[in-house]
Amino acid sequence: MAVVSLSDLQDLMTTALVAAGTSGPNAACVAKALARAEADGLPSHGASRTTTYADQVISGKIDGHVIPTITRPKPGVVHVDAATGFAFPAIEQGIKAGATAAAETGIAFVAVANSHHFGVAGHHVEDMTTHGMIGLCFGNSPAAIAPWGGGRPLYGTNPIAFACPRTNAPPLVIDLSLAKMARGKVRLAMDRGEPIPEGMAVDADGVMTTDAKAAMSGAMLPMGDAKGASLALIVEVLAAALTASNFGFEATSIFEADGPPPRLGQCFMMIDPGPPSQNCFADRMEILLTAITDQPGTRLPGDRRLTLRQTAEAEGITLPDALLHDLQSRAKKALKS
Question: Number of folded domains in the chain?
Fold first, then answer.
């Protein structure tokens, strides 16, 4: 294992992505997102994604040079065409445009079409709070969850996230996958040769398994059983049907380089609560959150993430040697050219 500073890791990932054929601005945007995931203790969405992203740029599954197209078909609607490029630049620009629209109309809907894996959902809604907005996020992914009672994966793990600004405190951020275990974590366990916890997934024959490789060939189980499967269906409607993107069962793998682009969809809702001096939202939020933390043994969602982030900023990130060497090898190709 090796310890790398966040800034050095971000630079290394940027260079590796450029070597694969990604434009400098897009590579920097993606690397920033992956470094944020590592800092928050989410390695399944962090540096390990660089290699799969880079291979997909090389194969043409991701267009690394896309400049997303943004339109406002209605005053409160922002449409972003990611054009089979990376999701992160498309979402970053969509949030900026959505913040402008929400400030004008009070609420805005941002639809991102023809997209790719969008990383940590909570980071996108957290970014909305920097504009003073309440944020909601829905994103679909390649099929991993079967409809309740079925045995064939149909829905993605389809994360949902929410964030709202606070007065003199970090924003409240809630981020959850609709599977009992995020598929990225299963993939990471498979790559490391580690088992997954019991009750998370079934194999291709519908039998419960702790074998990560068997789980990747089978189906993830939804949180909340039938209720979770219904929530995954709702996300497919909002993120894919409404943005005219691929449903989970139509999308290709975001882990493999072969095949056409997955053309996934994401949608975001941005709500302007207004300045604290003109409404009671901020005060009411603190009353609610204080009522939670006043109870012994409780904590707010995201507290652990913030602690890990502070530690990473001060002490750096620990990476497996094999991953670090892979990134360095890829980056050298850019430095030689």
Answer: 2
Residues 246 and 321 in one domain: no
Separation of alpha carbons 33 and 40, rounded Å: 11
Q: How far apart are CA 91 and CA 82, in angstroms?
A: 8
Of the candidates 65, 83, 74, 75, the one whose C-alpha atom is nearest the C-alpha of residue 24 is 65
3-state DSSP percent of the chain in helix, strand and coil, to 5: 45, 20, 35
User: What is the distance between the alpha carbons of residues 233 and 269, in angstroms, rounded to a whole number?
Assistant: 18
What element of type H or E holds 102?
helix 87-105
333's tokens:
């190709």
Q: In this predicted structure, what is the pLDDT of residue 277?
A: 66
Q: Answer yes or no: is 123 within a domain.
A: yes
Q: Please report which helix (H) or strand (E) contains residue 72, including its range.
A: strand 69-74
The CATH number of the domain where 3 resides is what?
1.10.1530.10
Strand partners, 70: 80
Q: Provide the CATH number for the domain around residue 252.
A: 3.30.1370.60
Q: Are residues 18 and 36 in the same domain?
A: yes
Give me the numbers of helices (H) and strands (E) for the chain, helices first please.
11, 12
201: tokens are 């997934």
Nearest CA to 81 out of 237, 241, 245 is that of: 245
- What is the domain range of residue 54? 1-65+302-337
Q: How many residues does the chain have?
A: 337
Q: Are 96 and 51 within one domain?
A: no
For residue 337, pLDDT beyond 60: no
Alpha-carbon distance 243 to 270, whole Å?
A: 16
- Both 136 and 265 in one domain: the answer is yes
- pTM score, whole prediction: 0.93
User: What is the per-residue pLDDT for 161?
Assistant: 98
Structure tokens at 215: 């789980």
* Residue whose tokens read 């079934």: 202
pLDDT tens by residue, 283-320: 999 999 999 999 999 999 999 999 999 999 999 999 99
